Amino acid sequence: MRFALLYGLLIWLPQNLAAQGQLAISEGTFFQSFDNVSLNIDDTELLTDGELIGTNSNIFISSNFAQTNLGGEGNNHFGRLYLYSPNGEFLLVNSIEINDLLELNKSSLNLGSADLIFPSEGGYLEGETNEFRVYSKNGGKIIKTTTLNKPQNVSPGNLGFIISSNENLGLTEIYRTHSSTTLPSGEGISKTFELYTDINPSSPLNISISYFDTEAKNMDYEPQIWMLENTGEWTHVRTSSERNSDTQSNRVSANISEPTLTYTVGPEKVYPVDISSIPTAFTPNGDGTNDTFLIPFIDEDFNGRVTIISRWGDVIYSSDNYYYAPWDGHYKGKLMPTATYYYVVSFGSDQRNEIKGNISIVR
């Protein structure tokens, strides 16, 4: 049985409906479908100033227009919404809720300043490609609410944010926004995620962010996950990355200890290397002056490794945490003798900027 309620009237609907032109639900009108009603809309704007409740509906909208408006000032709750517009895009003019599925079939959805909401009971996104995606330049975002109990490679809403944890995170909200962010390393991808968990885990969790080539701008260096700290500063975490050339997409992963932050992907920090600024000697005698081998351009965001090698070729020091633990001239707890040693500074996965030089211990 399928029906809609319009101005208090009971209207019987066939299994499949078709519309062309403009389908408008005026203010004060309540439209509700039950069971699996299918509504096919061709070259038509769907504007709702009343209420559209189609929690079990299948709505197919295809358009040849450059832009097709979707939504309205009323309440829109879709079950399954399928969009097709290979030569244009859909513009969301007001927030909508998808209870089951939003599928893009060669179509982009511009959120404008509206929100696309996937409730906790379900809702996910399918069909995003390098060419056709959900995006916004005016603040529109995707909101996904879900309950995560020890998730393992779970992608809530299929939004490009994947999460794993050995603990229950409880009710979790994920916000996906679509603006590029200026990072210490340059401009990030045009996608940012906010993660809010009901339960703060005591152990690190793993997150991955996926993005398409067109969502990144000239990212010449290895991508990193960057976090917006409560201080308002962006810092990066050590990451691994993989690329799918067939789909022109990328995935960057990292272990994090604080889940309720904002995350994005950007290039690793490029350091202006001035070899002449690197000291050639230091005096690790414990007097508090010049006791460590300091490399001036290495800061807390440094995503590389410093290695110290003896004249015999033995590695006596190696660290990817050099800013916080520079070499103090010791090896296995003993101060090394007065001599010349060799250092290698590698910048993350980018070996093009690897530098080498000599450092002497003097007394």
Automatic annotation (TrEMBL):
Keyword annotations: Signal
Signal sequence interval, chain numbering: 1-18
Phylogenetic classification of the source organism: Bacteria, Pseudomonadati, Bacteroidota, Cytophagia, Cytophagales
NCBIfam families per the UniProt record, alphabetical: Bac_Flav_CTERM
Species the sequence originates in: Roseivirga spongicola
Entries under InterPro entries matching the protein: T9SS_type_B
Top-rank lineage group of the source organism: Bacteria
Protein name: Gliding motility-associated C-terminal domain-containing protein
